[in-house]
Amino acid sequence: MARQRQEGFGLADGLHYLEFLRRLHATLKPEWYFEVGTQTGASLRLSSAKTISVDPAFIAQLELIGDKPELHLFQETSDKFFASNRLNAMGVEFDLVFLDGMHLVEFLLRDFINTERHCKPDSVIVMHDCVPWNSDIAERDRITKDWTGDVWKIVPILRNYRPDLEIEVVDCAPTGLLIVSGLDPRNTALSDSYDEIIASYTDLKIEEYGVSTYFDELDLVPAEQSRWYSACPHQLAPGWQNKPDIAIKVAAPDRNALTEWGDYFFALGLAKAFSRLGYFTTIDPQDEWYSNTRPGGVDLVLKGRANFIKQRDRTCLYWAISKGIRPMNYAQADHVFWASGTMYKQALGGEMAEKSSLLPQAFDSEIIYPREQLRGKGMVFVGRNRAGFDRLSVAYAAKPGRDLKIWGPGWRNTEYESFLCGERVENNQLLDVYSSADVVLNDHTPQMRENGQTSNRIFDTLACGAVPVTDKVSWLPEDLRELVYVFEDQESFDKALSDASSETDKRRKERLEFARSMRERHSFAARARTILEVVNSLDRSYALEPQYGGDT
After folding, report:
1. At what angle do helices 194-201 and 105-116 cross, to 10 degrees?
2. Is the pLDDT score of 545 beyond 60?
3. Cα separations in angstroms, 543 against 173, 174, 548
4. Which residues contact 368 (CB under 8 A, 6 or more apart)?
5. Mean pLDDT score, 393-408
6. In contact, 244 and 279? CB cutoff 8 Å
7. Distance separating alpha carbons of residues 196 and 125, to the nearest angstrom
8. Residue 111: what pLDDT?
């Protein structure tokens, strides 16, 4: 999004609003979430609560249900929805609300009035688009592609007519977030004055209100200094203000596409680990790669398709978790972590030797942990059916009489569709899927297989005590080798499957013991500590000043 800031206007360029909302969900853990203006579903997907969404024209192309215990979608205007009295009939009180409907102040005001009536005193209402960067996008009539409309007026309206509310405007890209708390469902000041408010504000332009006046009153708060921020990150440890920020770069084109990319969940596990160690961490898709230029920070590139260019005054680290080795491509990095012993050995023979180290993939110990195996549910495979190479483990497993279950996109309308259980497994459900299986199947892309880039599916499987059967890869971490069954063709697959399915109770206990040891060896927490050791060893003279200042 190209943003031409007009003189006097503010520019919201902090943490992306979807990331802020995701963290807010994780911390507030609402029982009921309500949303007006869903469109593609990018914000709705963040909810794991019982959820109600209203939009007159859904265009969602994303999977929206996830792990929500209830999801109610109403394709109608919000005015019609509230007039239907459905909420009273359902007996619903909202804990968290996101209002992002029609970008005209009268619509947003009515949505706020109607929503507050169904909230609790400790509920939170979040609104979007109150930080326009020029007058054109703040017009009531849409004359530009990017358009906030005149919902900026909701800020002075609430401050004038509802001084009892607690209001904070947060610097979240691209157009800010207005967070309102201290709600009073019985307060009728806004509804009593609705006609007066609309008469006073509808035709008011931001220039007439005063651009400098508005932004002075706005008191835009940096995301990391928001009163809500301490509740939002992955449980940030004390002292984060004086440590460098960490921006994990993934190859997803934009934030709407993040959860469709496997690298995102890898990045999420790593981000949580850094945050627990007290480092403010973001996950940046391609269109936000260079939005954070804060000196002294760390850009960590999950290297596969991500061709990130080092920024001045920020440390640049590559973690080569997929794709091949191109020395010129890695030369700009301050340090390169290789997820493959094969590639690491190659690097040691060249000019990158002094800035290279071995760092295999990892698992998220918050969602994957040792569990007494339930077993008995045959073979499972969780992964995408990719064009251009065969999933050998699936091809060899899909024989008559075998119990095979597949989860992942791309399997419909293939010869394996009859084995398909679903196109998605949420990360927090992986433990149940893996631990109930006799065998967890794995294979690699031809390039990863040749490069020795061991799939993190193997780490996940071993970390819960389950049994992995995988295609032969040129390198496996030494401590994993005896616990992984490897195949090269149909005959060796059949033998691996037979051996894996007939493990003794003693062997299963050994797997559980190893799984318990993996937290210290191969978790994201362990990888984060290793990465930070390297960061602290580098010459970062430009990073001596605290990142955020202030006391912890």
Report:
1. 160
2. no
3. 25, 27, 12
4. 430, 431, 434, 460, 463, 464
5. 92
6. yes
7. 23
8. 97
The structural domains of the chain, ordered by start, are: 17-231 (3.40.50.150), 240-362 (3.40.50), 379-522 (3.40.50.2000)
Report yes or no: 356 and 338 within 8 Å, Cβ to Cβ.
Answer: yes
At 183, phi and psi to the nearest 5? -70, 155
What is the distance between the alpha carbons of residues 74 and 289, in angstroms, rounded to a whole number?
36
Q: Which pair of structure tokens corresponds to residue 68?
A: 């929500």
Percent of the chain with pLDDT over 70: 92
Separation CA 57–CA 231 (nearest Å): 33
Phi/psi of residue 61, nearest 5 degrees = -120, 10
Read off the amino acid at residue 24: L
For residue range 403-429, what is the model confidence (pLDDT) as tens digits?
Answer: 999 999 999 999 999 999 998 887 778
Q: Residue 552's pLDDT is what?
A: 21
Buried b (16+ CB within 10 A) or exposed e, 319-352: bbbbbebeeeebeebbbbbbbbbbbbebbeeeeb
* CB neighbour list of residue 52: distance below 8 Å, 6 or more residues apart: 32, 33, 34, 35, 72, 74, 87, 92, 94
Per residue in 471-506, pLDDT tens? 999 999 999 999 999 999 999 999 999 999 889 989
Closest CA to 391 of 374, 377, 411: 411
